[in-house]
Amino acid sequence: MRRDAACVFCRIVEGQAEASVVYQDNLVTAFMDILPVNEGHLLVVPNEHSQGLEGLSEESGARMFAVARRLALALLRSGLRCEGVNLYLADGQAAGQEVFHIHLHVLPRFRGDGFGLRRTKLLMPPSRQALDVVAENIRRALRE
Prior knowledge:
There is one protein chain. The chain is α+β, with helices and mostly antiparallel strands. The protein has a single domain (8-114), classed as HIT-like (HIT family, subunit A), CATH 3.30.428. The protein is built from 3 helices and 5 strands. The protein has helices at 8-13, 58-77, 128-143, and strands at residues 21-24, 28-32, 42-46, 84-88, 104-109. A 5-stranded antiparallel sheet has the order 1-2-3-5-4, with helices on one face. β1 (21-24) and β2 (28-32) form a beta hairpin. The longest helix has 20 residues, at 58-77. The mean pLDDT is 95.
């Protein structure tokens, strides 16, 4: 399995760096975020090093989301302040990724917690024709 000795998440997976681990199996590890948005904020990481989505295996990606779902349900039953859950993944610096080992945030949410994605730039609703052109470009890229 690929690991990066300089990567803090790889070191956590290996048990070489401190973490409050909640779950671990042969594909993924979940642990508490040290800079939480809200109490109970978790990270789910693949055990194999991958900087972003491009290097993530489908099997590990599917497992990340399956485990995140289970963790989200656990958060709702945990007694923590949690009225809902966001799953958030930032792929690349432009998307806000800060640690370059792909990871999925499991964020417990409650009304008025002050967190959220904010739109500062709103696009005008595109025409159906414009949407169809973009959809075709994406379909073409899927075939490549």
